[in-house]
User: Fold this.
Amino acid sequence: MTDPTRATAAVTADAQDRLAVLEARLRLLEDERDIGRLMASYGPLVDSGAADDVAGLWAPDGVYDIDELYLGGRDEIRAMVRSAAHQGWIEGGCAHVVGPPHITVDGDTAVAVCHSLMVVHDEGRYAVRRATANHWLLRRTAEGWRVTTRTNRVLDGRPESPALLRAGVRGAAARS
Assistant:
């Protein structure tokens, strides 16, 4: 004869294990969604000149490493959005388009990779000004997910650009 108390305990333990697995899977999906939303918000925010909001995507000590610019911290990122050069792009018409990301979450850190295009209005038509490989390092903070390092490199045949993409898909940090 089976002990009903023991059987109930086994069923309860199995249900608790299954619930824990489901909670972990849900958290991963929510993390990926939140990171994807953060990344997707960059284009609309930077194209609308929302300097504080753009800077807020980064951790306070976060880095934005672009081919021709190295921005360390939210103040420098904010200043880039407010700069005459960037405001000129907005006034002339531009779109920063971030492609779908590949995201790898590992606890409270994540690596994401995507392509991005900068499309500009030029004499009544639109042209791609830049196509870049984007490698993002992120961490969970009290504010939610924030960028710790975003590295962009132009896709112009230089080997470091596809290396960023490859590393990101593998969930690895970019090599300097």
Remarks:
- The chain has a mean pLDDT of 94.
